[in-house]
Amino acid sequence: MPRQPKPFFxxxxxxxxxxxxxxxxxxxxxxxxxxxxxxAIMAGREQPSPSIRVVALxxxxxxxxxxxxxxxxxNWYRFYLQTFAKFIGPIIxxxxxxPYHVTEWIETCYKGTSADYRHGAIRSIQRACNWAVxxxxxxxxxxxxxxxxxxxxxxxxxxxxxxxxLIALVQDQPFIDFLTVMWETGARPQEVRIVESHHVDxxxxxxxxxxxKGKRKRxxxxxxxIAKEITLRLMEKQPEGPLFRNTKGRPWTRNSIGLRLSRLxxxxxxxxxxxxxxxxxxxxxxxEGMPAIIVAKLMGHSDTRMLERVYEHLDDADLRQAxxxxxxxxxxxxxxxxxxxxx
Length: 343
Known about the structure:
Layout: E1 8-10, E2 15-20, E3 23-28, H1 31-46, H2 54-68, H3 71-88, H4 99-109, H5 115-134, H6 160-169, H7 173-185, H8 189-194, E4 204-207, E5 219-222, H9 225-237, H10 254-268, H11 274-287, H12 292-299, H13 305-310, H14 316-324
Antiparallel strand pairs: 1-2, 2-3, 4-5
Helix pairs in contact: 2-3, 2-5, 3-4, 3-5, 7-11
């Protein structure tokens, strides 16, 4: 009898692995979870993989994401995968899953939503199946050939006139507050979603490394007078937990924001996504003459390389104006000297 492969621990990565033939499978950093995955994989090898139910595979993938990825990532996958599981029902097995199941799900549940939204939905299903392939649970992904719509480029810019149209269509103050703070500060959508009263200090939001993107350094968001007024008003209303909440008093999620914006996009006739608002803030500052390094720092970047990649849309007239110094810089967000955090 050939010897059964067993999980092994690698000190360099502080992770557990399983070697199945030429394939090395990552089982994660937690030993108990690694052995749980190991037994699930071996059980899957003992029976033909096509007999695995789709809902069971999705549940297994979500358990892995919950143990190995950030909470926000888990919530993002769970949102899409639960709706897909409900749509196809508990009976369909992997061998019966076809691309048209995904296509019909999109047409039924996400018709009329933005390309970004539909792209994310399809990607979540494909990612779950690709994970199952990498884990040795199934031999191939049955939905790899599903075509995803092209998402809205993140360099899409909203000009002030379009911004006024956008805000005019929003019916509730909570969403106006959320969008306005991004427009005023250039903060990331995630930062607006998670900010709480204890993050606020002297006209700034201060996030520790564990709450910052990349978790490499502390993130500081400087507030304009408008953003500061909104923050203080919400602090009185929400002394505990996330400041920004919807009309039902629940914290905003990435999916709920995306869905709201995709509906507005249909009415507006131009692309809208949360990051477009952030990038629009950066473009306005650059065009008004704020130095690129200041813009980068206020956005939370360590240098200007991200600006150089993302803001190539600045045209020749913008660059000529900047080099000539024909800008006023009026209304910029640079703190006055001797007044840190006064923005």
